Amino acid sequence: MIKLAITGVCGKMGSAILKLAVSDKDFQITGAVEKKGHPMVGQPADRIIGNAPGSITIVHDIEKVIDACDVIIDFTDPHGTLENFRLVREKQKCIVIGTTGLAEDAIRQIRDSKDVKVVISPNMSIGMNLMFDVIDRVSKVLQDGYDVEIVEMHHRWKKDAPSGTAMQLKEIVKSAQPGKRWEEVYGRKGFTGERKDEEIAILGLRGGDIVGEHTVMYAGIGERLEITHRAYSRENFARGALTAAKWIVRQSPGIYGMKDVLGL
Q1: What is the pTM of this model?
Q2: CATH homologous superfamily of domain 126-231?
Q3: E strand or H helix that includes residue 4
Q4: Is 189 a catalytic residue?
Q5: What pLDDT, on a 0 to 100 scale, did the predictor assign at position 51?
Q6: Is 158 known to be catalytic?
């Protein structure tokens, strides 16, 4: 049985992970962490999800739970994630990171660490990661004559833009056509002139309670191909994170993505 600790456990993603994990016979919940000052700190975990173990108390200090776990699933904030990662590395535990909005320096620190077991991905959805694979293949074929635009839409409470998933899609497109001198565009306004061949545009929309929607458009002359992924529930992200947690505990130290987890 895999001993699991969840950080950001009272958030939308943390509670979704907890809900699925307590029903999964492969996991034993051994830690629940929330930020200092949160009203649920000090309360039993079953105050979040009714069938969660009441013996687990929500704490604000990850150091209180890290020794008892095998793997941590982290959906918190960029600062908290980096601090949690450093402790996980020190304690030689495993970590699954789904936090978005990480600075380039933080991502570099994580990716340069070869002595710890990490799965890091801006999107844990299995369907979305299949889309990543499809976008790579399509982008290698639809090159000259096809303009690429990326549109993402999320709920009104999302704090970072564009989404980490949209930025990943952008990088996949660019990597598939390495000979092109890409020019990134984030929205358009005013007299912009004709679209340049080397432009790749990323547009973020916010509104309502939309869980997540991403579209990559390949617009040619006389045809347009659109590939879209729509998330209707956070459970698909939570399910992917738990799949990653089961996978990473069996691996050698290294930095992995969901592509590795799914064998793509």
Answers
A1: 0.81
A2: Dihydrodipicolinate Reductase; domain 2 (3.30.360.10)
A3: strand 2-7
A4: no
A5: 83
A6: yes
